[in-house]
Amino acid sequence: MAACALRRGLLSTVSKYNKKHTLRILSSVADSSSGFEVFRPRVQCRACGLPGGVQQRRFMSSRSRPEGKILETVGMFEAVKQHGKYETGQLFLHSVFGYRGIVLFPWHARLYDRDITPPMAESKPEPPGAHGSKEVKGKTHTYYQVLIDTRDCPHISQRSQTEAVTFLANHDDSRALYAIPGLDYVSHEDILPYNSAEQIPIQHELFERFLTFNPAKSPPFTARDTLKAWQEKNHPWLELSDVHRETTENIRVTVIPFYMGMREAQNSHVYWWRYCIRLENMGNEVVQLRERHWRIFSLSGTLETVRGRGVVGREPVLSKEQPAFQYSSHVSLQAPSGHMWGTFRIERTDGSHFDVRIPPFSLESNKDDKAPPAGYTF
């Protein structure tokens, strides 16, 4: 709720500013003597490793300050870049999920937006059996590899997974996965840039390993050699190449597939992918995701159908206050390529349902099948 409340304030405020300004980004901590709510988790956050204690809730300005709240300056907004890209070390707030983060490095992806009617040239054909027959033009779009501030993980864990970037474990168990907590992919338009006078403005175990403070630079955080080496070593498993997007009845679905590598199991090759999905409610009506229906086509000729309740054990509600939900999952094939597509069954508040299309996307393994990375040890 805190993140979404912040997001609403941010989106309405930042749009009024076209140049650098001095609007402060503020955080608050509840005063335990004031009688207002104090966040005291009973257990340690498994995703973030945060100990129990008072958690922070952020507000935009003193005008929105409830009585008893203590405001602390986090930083100052900068102009949103309409052209070009953000550099390594850029601090930002996520415009959808509201968390604080920092840019590690950019990715240049091909965005296939099915909401845009393209010319026939430079279009991507539909996979066999997919719904519709529209070809989609790919457009270059910038995404970023970022670190999430672990202080914000409790506020976003119900809306976005903080362990979404996973790898195949480098040992004999062909199904074992491991995750790097607090690593995310962020679209250019999700970035609300700001600056801070703090030398360690983001709390994450990799921040000081990857970045160093350099006041002579802008932004004042530059990449260490460890970040450059880690990026080069893990490039095949981190690389973001294709993004697919489609909107049905104001529900937009964005899919990003990633190839994870190949493993041998029972004298056969098993190819693994992870895919990240974001659902966004672009309208005013409150809806809830109830079911998923996947079709998975393998180059070996098999077509699998998967149905089930919700996604990753949840049936998220998408409202104007909390319009988005993001998750990651995995799929394996006994072939080096395939396709996936499907629908989400969405329920309205009156009990009626409609199906939202999941844009079809390819599962490709045309990368170097060397051993997957051994994690982020240095």
TrEMBL record:
Q: Which GO terms describe its cellular component?
A: mitochondrial nucleoid; nucleus
Q: Which residues form the ApaG domain?
A: 245-370
User: What are the GO BP annotations of this UniProt entry?
Assistant: DNA repair; error-free translesion synthesis
Main localization category: mitochondrion
Q: Which residues form the signal peptide?
A: none
| Bilayer-crossing regions | none
Q: Which InterPro entries match?
A: ApaG_domain, ApaG_sf, Hemimethylated_DNA-bd_dom, Hemimethylated_DNA-bd_sf
Cellular compartment(s): Mitochondrion matrix; Nucleus
One Gene Ontology molecular-function label: DNA binding
**Keyword annotations for this protein?**
DNA damage, DNA repair, Mitochondrion, Nucleus, Phosphoprotein, Transit peptide
Q: What is the annotated quaternary arrangement, including any partners?
A: Interacts with PCNA and POLD2. Interacts with SSBP1. Interacts with PRIMPOL; leading to enhance DNA polymerase activity of PRIMPOL. Interacts with POLH. Interacts with POLD1; leading to stimulate DNA polymerase activity of POLD1.
NCBIfam families assigned to the protein according to its UniProt record, in alphabetical order? PRK05461.1
| Main function | Involved in DNA damage tolerance by regulating translesion synthesis (TLS) of templates carrying DNA damage lesions such as 8oxoG and abasic sites. May act by stimulating activity of DNA polymerases involved in TLS, such as PRIMPOL and polymerase delta (POLD1).
Q: What is this protein called?
A: Polymerase delta-interacting protein 2
